[in-house]
Amino acid sequence: MLQQFIVNSNEINQGLSIISHAIAARPVKNIYSGISIETIDEGLLLTATDGEMTIKKIVNAQVAVPGSTVFPAKLFTEVMRKQSIGDIRVNVDDNNTARILSSGSKTSIMGMSDDDFPQIKDITSGQKVKIVSSAFKNAINRVMFAVSTDEARKTLTGILMEIYPKEVRLVSIDGFRLALISIEAENQVPDGREFVSCIIPGRVMNELSKIIPDDDTEIELIYNASHVMVSFKGVRLYTTLLQGEFIDYKAILPQSAQTEMEIERTRFYDALERCSLIAREGKSNLITMDISENGLSMSARAERGDAHEDIPMVFHGNPLKISFNSQYMMDVVRNVEDDQMRMCFQSSVSPCIVRPLEGGKFVFLVLPVRTFD
Length: 373
Known about the structure:
The chain has about 375 residues and is of the alpha+beta class. The protein folds into three domains: about 5-110, DNA Polymerase III, Chain A, domain 2, CATH 3.10.150; about 125-250, DNA Polymerase III, Chain A, domain 2 (Roll); about 255-365, Roll (DNA Polymerase III, Chain A, domain 2), CATH 3.10.150. It has seven helices and 26 strands. It has helices at about 10-20, 75-80, 135-145, 200-210, 250, 265-280, 325-335, and strands at about 5-10, 35-40, 45-50, 55-60, 60-65, 70, 85-90, 95-100, 105-110, 125-130, 160-165, 165-175, 175-185, 195-200, 220-225, 225-230, 235-240, 260-265, 285-290, 295-300, 305-310, 315, 320-325, 340-345, 350-355, 360-365. The strands form four sheets. A nine-stranded antiparallel β-sheet has the order 14-11-12-13-26-25-24-18-22. Strands 6-2-3-4-17-16-15-10 form an eight-stranded antiparallel β-sheet. The protein has a five-stranded antiparallel β-sheet with strand order 5-1-7-8-9. A hairpin with a 6-residue loop joins strand 25 (about 350-355) and strand 26. Helix 3 crosses helix 4 and helix 6 runs antiparallel to helix 7. It starts with a strand and ends in a 7-residue tail after the last strand. The mean pLDDT is about 95.
């Protein structure tokens, strides 16, 4: 289709970088290997999709002749990246061949008709959520480690988003660990409901965290029974929601503890790292924690050596000896941002809960490993 426009190299390359997160390494359809470039009133609308996730980005441009064309994503992106800084002129003829001109450089690329390119419509009605970008990005990154990769339990490959009047919660569970991060936000919840929720694919949330800015930009999410749309700064991401019941995570969080300790996060993590060097040499990657009024003793044993760490802490309750997969525990503690944390235990075979000393801005759970010492 006939099309002509002039666009700044920095602006189109930034746009292409964002939408490239929706391009699959092995597209299931040939058309998904392309990017759509459509002229609109604001300039250019760049679109990429893998069939499950679609990302659109508006880029400023001077449009001489309106139109739309699909170009091979990898080639077009690489050609644009190599252009000189400044304006780039793109002329597309009736055969979908683009001639790209900048600072004496001329390149031709064969495009495709956009007839078969998916047309994704905006979601205009449904539950709306507005949230600060940096807080949302941080929350996604801190729950990603507990997203399941087991396709047999499809809902657990996603992140549960619960919307309350004063907060948004992101929850992930993989069967061994649980992560919950709470973000302060003012939301409208339907009358008579404590909260509403949806399950967003974990892979999509991971890509979203890479493109949303780490600042105070306002992110808007709107979702209906089947899809969600995320909008910010001329970008819109669309994806299909996961259908089905998420695990009732509240039912698996112990409401009381027989043993508690308040401990410095960095000191605990450093000791855990040292013990894990030995633990991973063994078959089960185990670290053992002996908790009492005398403090915390952490140890690991393997054929090639052993490690022992004594860590001061504030102790409450009953003495306890308990073992964990060192990597699972490290994943949890790595995502605690507070200087101090509370670790709660029921027994040597019950989950460990990690919380802040006050409030409920995060909750992590990790299952112990049963041992027969």
